[in-house]
Amino acid sequence: MFVGHYAAALAAKAAEPRAPLWSYIVASQLVDWGWSCLVMAGVEKLHLDPSLPGSHLVLDEMPWTHSLPGALAWSVGGALLGRFVLRVPWAAAAMLGAVVFSHWLGDLLVHRPDLLLYPGGPKLGLGFWNYPMPELILELGLVAVTAVLWTGQRKAEGRHAWPAALFVGLLVGLQMINALLPGDGAPEAMARTALLAYIATAVWAWWMDRHPAPGRRVV
Ligand SMILES: [Zn+2]
Questions:
Q1: Which of 8, 127, 159, 185 could form a disulfide with 154 if both were Cys (CB 3.0 to 4.6 A apart)?
Q2: pLDDT value at 187 more than 80
């Protein structure tokens, strides 16, 4: 799952708007920010198999980021960062933590079994990646539905809808690029590309949802 994770961020922003959009966007992929860094550091391991349907990722070892206890720890960390660094209200901090954990649930749906239930335990994954077209429709559908909710929240604040449409367009573009990548490169290069995509999406979310200067029309 790639842009489908961002659906949780959009739904959370619609339900609890007191945390900035970019923080929800980062939260929805926080586990993968960590994963990209740990793959580049050689701590977590993957290889690519272009013969696989859907995603070409074979995620050999990722106990620190994608095990159930690991994901829970990242979620608590995300909530605490939201509360004590971003200084959002507790309800928004809890929402940030829930969005971090939603990543693991999304991965559980699409990954082939590679998510450790506990250290040394069984690996979970329902394997929806094996059905590339329904999986793509699911990801884009989740983004579309939650984007409507989020746009409704923006309109309720008297803000324009078009930046939301632009943002969703960017997500769809990223998903298409992701689907068309050859998937036969080095793992470290793949992790670096993924991290750049996560950073670009977060910066775009920050820019698009930033507070307007006094006297300026809100976008
Ligand atoms: Zn992941």
A1: 159
A2: yes
